[in-house]
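Take a minute with the sequence and fold tokens given here and flag any structure token that looks odd. Thanks in advance.
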Amino acid sequence: MEVIILAGGFGTRLQSIVKNVPKPMADINGRPFLSFLLDYLINQKVKKVLLSVCYKHEAIENYFGFRYKNIEIGYVFETIPLGTGGAIREALKYVSDDNVIVLNGDTFFCINLSEMYDFHRGKRSNLTIAVKATENCSRYGAVIIQNDKIVQFEEKASNSFGYINGGIYIINSKVISSIIDEFGNQFSFERDFIQKIAKKINVFSYISNDYFIDIGIPEDYAIAKKELPCRVHT
């Protein structure tokens, strides 16, 4: 399994407490958040990761280099911020697998990647998104699902039960690469790309109730500092 991690975020909402480093390098009890993601991937038998980096990428390179434990690390550099969509478009140029896993570098969703991968292939999906049920969708927006397929997104979701995007994707690299260039250089994979193509190609949801945390806001970052060390075996 080839894995791309989107690690170029500025962490604007965290800058009051996480200064001078990219968001995936936010400190979690003396370790960067990204190291927990990599340990999770090691436990999932992943051997190679491609990091898409931009803002203060030197902090990531200097800490991890080209190997972390038994994971080989490669880098794709953004000279200007490309957004999640532009970052994925660039990273897909450097992968060889027909199906590639993409993780957001500021979320941790402890799913079984092998099971999600088998689900993706079994459905002959072009894009599979890991989703999680939540009692309040208002912060993330809701994913609307029919018969496992994702048919719609609601950005301004109500504070009621629904499914949210968990920040893990499996991409059919050939299919997605053939259409993603139409979106230009800088765009959001979530808002611009997925919402426009969801009804045109096979986009499936992989529903999981496993542990999920997003460190994008100070409140959840504080929760992650308490919970993550207990969740990941190093």
